[in-house]
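Reviewers asked in the last cycle whether our approach scales beyond single polypeptides. To address this, we selected a multi-component target totalling 318 residues and predicted its structure end to end. The input consisted of the following lines:
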Amino acid sequence: MTHRTEEVQGKASMINTTHLSLTPLAPFDYQSTAQSHGWMELAPNAWDKERHALQRVERLSTGQVVLLDITSTGSVEQPEMAIEVHHAGELSPKDRREVTAAVGRIFRADEELSEFYALCRERGGPWLKLTAGLGRVLRSPTVFEDAVKTICTINIQWGGTKGMVKRLVNAFGEQYPGDPALRAFPTPETMAAATPEAFAVAARLGFRTPYVHTLAQRIASGELDLEALRNPALPTLELKKRLLSIKGVGNYAAATLLMLLGRYDELAVDTAFRQFVGHKYFQGQYPSDKEAQALYADWGRWKYLAYWFDIWQSFRES
DNA sequence: TTCCAGGGGTAGA
DNA sequence: TCTACCCATGGA
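The resulting structure, written as structure tokens, was:
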């Protein structure tokens, strides 16, 4: 991953703009990656359809809150992303590195998928499309944000998930100084500082309320280090065990978080999975979870990606 | 008003 | 390991 920086000073505003760039591993399909997951629609993310830009408010480790505007300036084979950072005051070299690292993580800029692409080529047909830079599933800069959002997908329709995440951001996220209506995803410390009662009233997460609040408290107190789960040396089974030890995380959420951590061994069995597999492979009948999972068994450690883009292609064809 | 969603925890077998 | 039951919330 490489980056270069230049700075442009705004003239009429207290907000300055810094231009950064990021070069992901090729092949890389920027737009398909951004639209690969509903995460694009969850606050503080927003997708600008006309400019094909992903916008997001980010709180840096210094406490500075900035607005990111991310677009593609390259091609699939020679990819490059432009990152406009709107911020008050200065943006230090450390801040710039933090921003490019966050964007790199969101887009999985350094994720190596050649083994998955080789399997897609063996299959041929519609799977060949994936080898043109698809296969990256959008995620968040922190494991905490992904964990909270995953818990907010449990037993609820997508509109409900969007509403819950938006309430969390509006109630506990820090404001962007250039537009107080825009906020960053809240830190564990901010959520943990609220009483359970105040948290429940503000977020309205239903039965997920104690799961998310307790998770924030455990991280804020130092008892739990979710970022440590990004360690590639951790065996997947150990990682899954640690995820399942989090209250509110069961088999579905653990498989989703494994995928977000770059481990594709497990399928997230939920209503969408059962409906899709039943419709496409079992003449509309719901198979057992074992039968459904067996469909993707020979994808080995790439099962989740195979399923995810199987449903993604069906969606695009319909 | 009723149903149920992109499930999970718990108890009991 | 499996099943039954309950769990808040909000959209259809």
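Residues 38, 153-158, 160-161, 207-208, 211, 247-253, 256, 268-273, 275 of chain A lie near DNA strand B (CB under 10 Å from a C1'). We regard this as preliminary and will revisit it once experimental data from Aim 1 are available.
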